[in-house]
Write a structure and sequence with these properties.
By secondary structure, the protein is of the alpha+beta class. It has six helices and 14 strands. Strand 13 and strand 14 form a beta hairpin.
C-alpha cells in the first residue's frame, strides 16, 4: 500500500510544464483513424477494446443518452474466467462497453456531424459519439505517465520522453524504470507537430488522469473484501457491484 500512496503523491506533484515538454518532444496530432477505439487484432484473433472508465464517468455517459449502466460499461475481463453460465469471478475495473465487433460502443465509422470529431479536429473516418464526455483515458491516449512502483501504463510504449522515473518507496527492486516519465503508445498520430497550448492542455488532463487512476486504486485497496458468489463482481472505489452497476448484496 505504501507504494500506491507514494505514487499518488508523485502524481499530484507532477509538473504540467514538464509533462507538456515531453509531449511536445514526442509530438502528436489525432488523425481520427479510430485505432484507439477498435478491437485489436492479435495472433489469436480480435481482442475486444478495453478502455478503463471510472464510476462517475459511467454515470456522466449514462446522462448523455439515457443509457443503462450496461450500455456504457462492462466488467473489465482481466481476471475473470468462463464458467458454465458465462463469465465469473472478481475484477477491479470497468471497461467501456463494446459492440458485436469488439469496438467501443460509442465509436462510429464515417465522418460524423459537427462536434463529434476526435481530438485535433482532423477529418477522417472515425467518430466518437460522446466526444465531449469521453473518459480521461480517451482524452489522453496515446499518452500515459509512469511513476514507478506497482502501477505501470498498460501496453508496451513505442516512445518516451521526460525525466527518468524514480523507484517508489517500498517497491520491488526490479521495478526501477529508467525510461522517460511520459510514455507514448502505438498511434499513427505520433511524431506530428503539436502546439504548446495543446500540449499543455493535454499534459494537465494527463496529470488529472494519473491522479484519478491512483486514487481509484487506493480506494479499491482500502475497501476490498473478497466475495464468494456465482457470476461476476466488480470492485471499484465505491464498493463491490454487479455487472449492471447495482451494489453487491453480500446476503445474496
Amino acid at each position: 500500500m505504501e507504494s500506491l500512496e507514494t505514487e499518488l503523491e508523485r502524481a499530484r506533484a507532477l509538473d504540467v510544464e514538464e509533462v507538456a515538454d515531453a509531449i511536445e518532444e514526442i509530438g502528436f496530432e489525432c488523425t481520427r483513424c479510430g485505432g484507439c477505439c477498435k478491437a485489436v487484432e492479435t495472433d489469436d484473433g480480435a481482442a475486444e477494446h478495453t478502455a478503463t472508465v471510472f464510476p462517475d464517468e459511467v454515470r456522466r455517459l449514462q446522462e448523455t443518452g439515457d443509457y443503462d449502466w450496461r450500455d456504457v460499461a462492462r466488467p473489465m475481463p482481466f481476471g475473470l474466467t468462463e464458467g458454465a453460465d458465462g463469465p465469473e469471478g472478481e475484477t477491479f475495473e470497468w471497461a467501456l462497453q463494446t459492440d458485436g465487433c469488439g469496438d467501443c460502443a460509442f465509436y462510429e465509422e464515417g465522418n460524423g456531424g459537427e462536434g463529434k470529431a476526435a481530438a485535433g479536429g482532423q477529418q477522417g473516418t472515425g467518430t466518437c459519439t460522446v466526444h465531449g464526455d469521453r473518459p480521461l483515458i480517451c482524452q489522453t491516449y496515446p499518452f500515459s505517465v509512469a511513476l514507478g512502483g506497482t502501477s505501470q501504463p498498460m501496453g508496451d510504449p513505442v516512445d518516451s520522453a521526460g525525466p527518468e522515473v524514480p523507484q517508489a518507496d517500498g517497491a520491488p527492486a526490479d521495478s526501477v524504470d529508467s525510461k522517460g516519465l511520459v510514455r507514448a503508445h502505438e498511434c499513427e498520430g505520433l511524431g506530428r507537430d503539436i502546439s504548446r497550448e495543446e500540449a499543455e492542455e493535454l499534459a494537465a488532463t494527463l496529470k488529472r488522469r494519473a491522479v484519478r487512476e491512483l486514487e481509484e486504486a487506493v480506494a479499491v485497496s482500502d475497501t476490498y473484501q473478497p466475495v464468494d458468489t456465482d457470476g461476476v463482481v466488480v470492485h471499484d472505489s465505491e464498493g463491490a457491484k454487479r455487472p449492471d452497476g447495482r451494489p453487491y448484496d453480500r446476503s445474496e
